[in-house]
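Field reference: sequence -> structure
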Amino acid sequence: MSTARQQLEAQRAEAERLRQRVAELEAQAASEVTPTGEKEGLGQGQSLEQLEALVQTKDQEIQTLKSQTGGPREALEAAEREETQQKVQDLETRNAELEHQLRAMERSLEEARAERERARAEVGRAAQLLDVSLFELSELREGLARLAEAAP
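Structure field:
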């Protein structure tokens, strides 16, 4: 964040310097246009052409400088874009980690369900064995009771 701030401050300073340079060039162009009376002695056609060429050159310089002032904004946008891309990349990485954890948890849940079903089936088998054993014990008791009654 501090690097982006430093870049922004540097770009603001550069923009201000360029604004001052544009103002100087505009003032210089204005001062060069006024002494036309001195150049008229050379020939009106030539001095007018020279002035037009000079004005055109200065206008081009001004446009060039003005276009350069867009640089700080673009650099700031680039820094913000880079920061946003980094955040997106971090979020994608975190998302991948969470998806991995989710798949691991789903596997664990399935394993736990399968284990519960196995335990439930085993408890069912044990209950059946107990029922059979109880039935056999009950028959054995009845048989012993009959023997005891039959014995003198």
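Note: Confidence is low (pLDDT under 50) at residues 36-43.
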